Amino acid sequence: MNHLLCFGFGFSASALAQLLSPQGWRITGTSRSAEGKERIRSLGFEAARFDGTAPSGDVTRALETASHLLISAPPSDDGDPVLAHHRADIVTANGLRWIGYLSTIGVYGDHGGAWVDETTPETPLSDRSKRRLAAEQSWRALTRPGAGPDVQVFRLAGIYGPGRSAIDQVRAGRARRIVSPGQVFNRIHVDDIAGTLAAAIATGGTHTVYNVTDDEPAPPQDVIGHAAKLLGVPAPPELPIEEAELSPMAQSFYSELKRVRNDRIKQDLGVRLYYPTYREGLAAVLEGSGGSKM
Q: Which fold has domain 3-157+188-214+261-275?
C-alpha cells in the first residue's frame, strides 16, 4: 500500500492527503500536540506526535511502512527539525520511494520585477527565507545509497484557498488594499499545490526543484478589488504602503519584487493548473468548490 507520511499537516499537506486518500492511500500526519493529533484523526487520517524538539517513536514506527514522505514543517534557527531527529531513520527506510520538501519562492529574494525561474541564483533577503534555503540544501544533500530518488523541492508562492483567501478577508472586514506602485506577487491555490505534488509522485519528473505558482503575478490591491467585486460589495479604499503600518513579516514581502515562472511544472510534470490566475481561484472559493480535486 502507498503510505504518505507528512511532517506537518497544515493547509497544503492536508489538501494532498484529501486528494490521495480516495485512491486508497494510507496517510499519516504529524502534529506538535495531542489536540493536533485528534484533529488529524477527526479528518480520517493517522496521526503521529512530533514537536521538533526530540525524536518521536510515532514517527520511527510510521517510517517503517512509509513509501512517500512530504516535509512541510518549517525550519528553526537550529535547522530542519526532521533531519535533526530522524535523519538516520529516513536514510535507512527501505520502503521510501519519494521525498518532497515544501519551500518558498522567497529564496530568490528581490529581482526588481524581473522574471525568475528554477535556474535563477538564490539570493534570499529575510531570515525566514535564508532558513528555508539552508533546509532545502540539507535535504538535497541527503544521501540514501541505492535507495529511492533524490529529494524534490517545491518552491511555493503565496498560498490561498477555501477559508484563506481575499474572499474571506473581504467578508470578515479585514481586507486592505495596500498600494505599493509596481508591486506584484505570485500566488497559488492550495488545490494546485496538491495537484502538482500528486503529479510529481506519479511521474517522478526529471528535476529536483520546481516553482509552484500561478500564471499571473498581480498587484495585491487588484486581488482585493476583484474579491469585493465578486461579492458585490464596495472595495476597501486604497491605502498607500507608507501608511499601512505593516508587520515585520509583511514588510519583508513588500521589500521583494519578482515574477516567478512555472513552466517547469507544466513541461516536466504535465501539470495543468486548475486556477491559472487569482480570478479563477477566487471564483472557486466563492462558489464553495475546491478541495480534493481528482
A: Rossmann fold (3.40.50)
